[in-house]
């Protein structure tokens, strides 16, 4: 028998340390401790057994791993925190003693720290940093719209704005934007950078207030770290594209003044403000090198390709990948042939960003923002984005569309027909591109149309099939005998002016005639048949009839029987899983049916409403 | 004069003024003398008042007193222009003579002997020792200047001008230690510590940016919007249910009526008082209980009789008992052995049993692991406060405007981020604490002025 082991000398009692004791150990104030934890990426943990971790006490506490705290104790920034603490004391003393010179000296010598080594420590490779970019981008873009605030460091807000603008400029240059979603919270963007999907959320540029219920100190510490990270990421991204960092522009006229002598900004802020307009291309380091690379890509032989791919080129997979690549390249040039002009009432930054990401040209009113490249009277403009129902002056050479058109085009990956997006028109719903339906899920009809378009079914085909469907619908409605609904069915087919209405009227009259004829002839024949039946109750011989076989039905039956047999062959072990899958499928089908009927009902209601309106 | 007068008043002294000398001595001529004295003063200070005109004597009251006369109001920051109280001692005191200025020690050598050295210095010729010192000082100054410049740059936060992932962070080791022994560096704590084992594990699997439901689009489709509303409705229902539950629970807590509270208070306050009375009461009670106990004793079972020598077992008896026990043990062991030997024929069955048991444990383990993973993926509770997610953002059907221009955004992104950080276990859920009340000292104002 060895010695009796003492309690709480190993296990959970020693692997965890409470926050208070950690603070004591590091000799910090709680504010500095929180800051250090955030900067170093050390987070609290929840021990499995709080009683063991608390050495017998069950008091709810925040725990950290002891190893983590020991790791924190070795951080050089810790000393800077202590220096800052004593510096603060000195400042206070000088202030109260009114020693102005000492105070000036102290302000000048404020201890500072850099976070470079922590960035490297937390993100050992560039890919790691890219993977975690969602949070920094979202936080920085929401900080970028803040007002000056005494709770936030003065330089943090403009820094965030600069970094976000730089990143957006990179996305434009690399054309890596993939999805946009206008939600009621803000605008979601998704970009694909070096194989990583990066999603971030930006606020609408409106009067923005800091909510009161949060601790700004904590959140601005996160921002402080993320700005450092974003700076390094931007540097690396810019260099991967051979673009100069910090971004520079070719400026034709260096003065910031407008014609009437007013100016948007100071002369030394000119470049950064123009970069922030997102409308101009950035200067590349060596433009020749990139051009050569592009040439190389074109002149690649089949063997080269094989070498690059590391496999046979003729395989189906390779072909598929190649096809997808071509599709993506086409998508990147979506707005290449479009020239946009933005009206004053539309969100300028988001639209400029999206349009420029797909190669479009953008400009706006000169007085709206710095960096407008052409005037509203330019005849080569193809689209003008407006968000008011009526326009004062209209040019015939361009389409006037609502801003949603641009975003919907990006999500659909094609240029959608502009008719539905004219000013004053009721817009089609803006669907989320982040939803992916599984097989058998219910898909709203708007999305079905979009998907079909994506697959490349021609518009004319779609319309033709649509009209057929409508005819079928008409038949059913005729049986019901409801005139109003029938009227509406036509209305839905194509809503284009009175001529269509007239046609519909004629068609309807014709059909009514036919119907009456049918009923007359039909009634006579039925009566005769009945009489015949009564007569032929006595013994008689009838000619044999050929039994018609419905091939489709038989095939279906056969398939179902086969399916049943196969089900029987499933071993008992796997039967449970199979049953589960079947149940899921059935549930999905049920939901599908429920939603379609709901939709139909809703549409019917809408139609009724419309009809009532027309009648009025 | 006055003193005598007062004396005359208090003590009526009769004096005769018969003679001229007495008359002069005792007659009261103060008023005349005062008058004459006043006239003399007036003549000295600019003429007799009686002869002066009105305008020389009076000033026309124009309403406000002049600015000079008005007392200057002390501002809040006036104290700043005055010297501090703590430095009053340091100010020169006119009553204390100044300390004579110390004479510089000067060179011990005579002035004439020192002259060439001074001249050399003026011409820039130094002794080797001085030269070294000067060079050192210059180097130090340069170093400090460079450092200051570097720090100034850092303060401006210029964009990071290097690639951290190919070059690595700039080392903050001094130049001397760049090639130092790693052992030395480690023991002088100049090397970075290795990161903890689970440093790169993420605290949760919850994504940093959660995309909202399609129904939260600014212009949603009918189905999506309905679905979102349904979700919000369900959430609200659950919330209401818990609230109701809590309310009911709080109903179960008994509330004391006012009378009972008072009684309790009295009882507490009088604890330890009136002990004697209570003791007497107790005694009576005890007597009663004793009586009842004595009754009970008669019915209770008798204890075992004390052990005697006759009752002791003999050695023989003990030996026989031990023998019986041993044989029994042997018999049992033999039986066990027999059964075990028989297991040879059950090998197949045993193998199956083991297999089954292993499978069962594996299944159990898998289930536990899954549960653990599920727990690890979610939001945890640190400290006292449990995380509460922000309510879902949504717009009612009549709030949907269908135009980007008229859209009013819901919620705040920064608050959303804050909640997301909490949800991902990066920070603890915190409830903002209100600051403690200022501790003011209470005192009674003395005198009638303070009483209103």
Instruction: Label the overall shape of chain A.
Output: extended
Largest interface, with counts of residues having CB < 8 Å to the other chain, equals: A-B, 99 and 74 residues
| Quaternary | heterodimer
Content of β-strand of chain A: 5-15%
Number of strands of chain B: 0
- Sequence stretches where pLDDT stays below 50 over 5 or more residues of chain A: 458-499
Distance between the termini of chain B: 48 Å
General shape of chain B: extended
Number of helices of chain A: 24
Average pLDDT taken over every residue of chain A? 82
Function (chain A): Required for maturation of ribosomal RNAs and formation of the large ribosomal subunit.
GO biological process, one term (chain A): maturation of LSU-rRNA from tricistronic rRNA transcript (SSU-rRNA, 5.8S rRNA, LSU-rRNA)
Family (chain A): Belongs to the pescadillo family.
GO molecular function, one term (chain A): RNA binding
Keywords:
heterodimer; A: 616 residues; alpha/beta; 9 strands; extended; B: 452 residues; mainly alpha; 14 helices; 50% helix; disordered N terminus; Ribosome biogenesis protein NOP53 (chain B)
């Amino acid at each position: 028998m060895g010695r009796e082991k003492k309690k709480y000398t190993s296990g959970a009692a020693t692997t965890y340390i409470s926050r208070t004791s950690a603070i004591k150990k590091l000799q910090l104030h709680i504010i500095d401790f929180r800051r250090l934890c955030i900067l170093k990426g050390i987070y609290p943990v929840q021990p499995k057994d709080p009683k063991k971790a608390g050495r017998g006490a069950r008091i709810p506490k925040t725990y950290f791993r002891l190893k983590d705290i020991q790791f924190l104790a070795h951080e050089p920034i810790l000393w800077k925190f202590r220096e800052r603490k004593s510096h603060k004391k000195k400042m206070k003393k000088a202030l109260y003693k009114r020693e102005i010179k000492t105070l000036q000296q102290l302000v000048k010598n404020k201890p500072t720290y850099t976070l470079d080594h922590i960035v490297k420590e937390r993100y050992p490779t560039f890919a790691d940093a890219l993977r975690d970019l969602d949070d920094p981008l979202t936080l920085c873009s929401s900080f970028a719209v803040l007002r000056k605030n005494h709770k936030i460091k003065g330089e943090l807000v403009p820094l965030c704005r600069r970094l976000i603008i730089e990143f957006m400029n990179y996305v434009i240059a690399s054309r890596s934007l993939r999805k946009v979603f206008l939600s009621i919270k803000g605008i979601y963007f998704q970009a694909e950078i070096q194989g990583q999907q990066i999603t971030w959320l930006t606020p609408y540029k409106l009067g923005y207030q800091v909510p009161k219920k949060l601790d700004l100190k904590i959140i601005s510490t996160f921002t402080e770290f993320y700005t450092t990270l974003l700076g390094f990421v931007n540097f690396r991204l810019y260099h991967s594209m051979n673009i100069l960092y910090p971004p520079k522009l070719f400026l034709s006229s260096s003065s910031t003044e407008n014609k009437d002598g007013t100016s948007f900004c100071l002369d030394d802020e000119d470049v950064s403000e123009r970069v922030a307009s997102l409308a101009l291309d950035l200067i590349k380091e060596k433009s020749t090198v990139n051009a050569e690379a592009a040439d190389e890509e074109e002149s690649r032989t089949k063997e080269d390709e094989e070498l690059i791919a590391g496999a046979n080129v003729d395989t189906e997979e390779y072909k598929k990948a190649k096809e997808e690549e071509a599709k993506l390249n086409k998508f990147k040039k979506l707005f290449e042939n479009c020239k946009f002009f933005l009206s004053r009432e539309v969100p300028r930054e988001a639209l400029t960003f999206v349009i420029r990401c797909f190669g479009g040209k953008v400009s706006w009113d000169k007085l709206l923002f710095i960096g407008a490249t052409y005037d509203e009277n330019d005849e080569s403009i193809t689209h003008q984005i407006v968000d008011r129902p009526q326009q004062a002056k209209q040019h015939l050479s361009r389409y006037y569309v609502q801003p949603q058109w641009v975003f919907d085009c990006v999500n659909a990956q094609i240029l959608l027909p502009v008719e539905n997006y004219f000013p004053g028109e009721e817009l089609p719903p803006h669907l989320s591109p982040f939803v992916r339906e599984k097989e058998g899920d219910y898909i709203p009809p708007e999305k079905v149309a979009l998907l079909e378009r994506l697959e490349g079914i021609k518009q004319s085909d779609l319309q033709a099939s649509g009209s057929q469907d409508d005819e079928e619908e008409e038949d059913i409605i005729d049986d019901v005998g409801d005139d109003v609904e029938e009227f509406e069915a036509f209305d839905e087919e194509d809503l284009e002016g009175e001529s269509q209405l007239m046609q519909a009227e004629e068609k309807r009259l014709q059909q009514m005639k036919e119907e009456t004829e049918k009923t007359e002839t039909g009634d006579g024949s039925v009566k005769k048949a009945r009489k015949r039946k009564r007569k032929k109750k006595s013994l008689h011989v009838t000619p044999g009839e050929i039994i018609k076989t419905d091939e489709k039905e038989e095939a279906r039956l056969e398939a179902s029987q086969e399916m049943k047999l196969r089900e029987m062959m499933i071993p008992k072990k796997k039967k449970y899983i199979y049953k589960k899958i079947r149940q899921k499928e059935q549930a999905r089908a049920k939901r599908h049916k429920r939603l379609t009927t709901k939709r139909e009902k809703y549409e019917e209601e809408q139609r009724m409403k419309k009809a009532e309106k027309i009648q009025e | 004069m006055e003193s005598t007068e007062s004396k005359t008043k208090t003590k009526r002294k009769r004096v005769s003024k018969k003679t001229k000398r007495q008359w002069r001595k005792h007659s009261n001529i103060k008023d005349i003398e005062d008058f004459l004295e006043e006239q003399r003063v007036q003549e000295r200070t600019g003429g007799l008042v009686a002869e002066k005109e009105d305008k020389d004597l009076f000033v026309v009251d124009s309403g406000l007193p002049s600015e000079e006369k008005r007392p200057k109001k002390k501002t809040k920051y006036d104290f700043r222009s005055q010297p501090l109280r703590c430095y009053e001692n340091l100010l020169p005191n006119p009553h204390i003579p100044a300390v004579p200025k110390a004479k510089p020690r000067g060179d011990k050598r005579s002035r004439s002997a020192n002259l060439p050295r001074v001249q050399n210095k003026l011409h820039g010729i130094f002794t080797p020792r001085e030269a070294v010192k000067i060079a050192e000082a210059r180097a130090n100054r340069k170093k400090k200047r460079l450092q200051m410049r570097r720090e100034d740059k850092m303060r401006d936060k210029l964009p990071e001008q290097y690639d951290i992932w190919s070059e690595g962070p700039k080392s903050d080791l001094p130049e001397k230690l760049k090639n130092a022994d790693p052992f030395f560096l480690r023991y002088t704590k100049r090397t970075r510590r290795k990161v903890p084992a689970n440093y790169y594990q993420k605290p949760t699997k919850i994504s940093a940016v959660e995309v909202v439901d399609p129904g939260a689009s600014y212009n949603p489709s009918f189905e999506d919007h309905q679905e979102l509303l349904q979700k919000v409705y369900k959430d609200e229902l659950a919330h209401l249910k818990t609230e109701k539950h809590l309310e009911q629970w709080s109903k179960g807590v008994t509330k004391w009526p006012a009378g009972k509270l008072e009684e309790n208070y009295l009882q507490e306050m009088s604890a330890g008082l009136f002990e004697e009375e209570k003791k007497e009461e107790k005694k009576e009670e005890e007597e009663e209980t004793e009586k009842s106990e004595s009754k009970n004793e008669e019915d209770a079972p008798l204890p075992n009789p004390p052990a005697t020598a006759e009752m002791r077992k003999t050695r023989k008896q003990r030996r026989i008992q031990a023998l019986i026990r041993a044989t029994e043990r042997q018999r049992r062991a033999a039986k066990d052995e027999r059964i075990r030997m028989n297991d040879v024929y059950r090998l197949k069955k045993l193998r199956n049993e083991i297999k089954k048991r292993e499978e069962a444990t594996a299944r159990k383990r898998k289930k536990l692991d899954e549960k653990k993973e599920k727990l690890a993926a979610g939001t945890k509770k640190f400290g006292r406060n449990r995380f509460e997610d922000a309510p879902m953002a949504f717009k009612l059907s009549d709030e949907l405007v269908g135009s980007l221009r008229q859209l009013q955004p819901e919620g705040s992104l920064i608050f959303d981020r804050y909640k997301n950080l909490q949800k991902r276990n990066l920070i603890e859920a915190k409830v903002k604490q209100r600051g403690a009340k200022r501790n003011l000292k209470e005192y009674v104002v003395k005198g009638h002025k303070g009483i209103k």
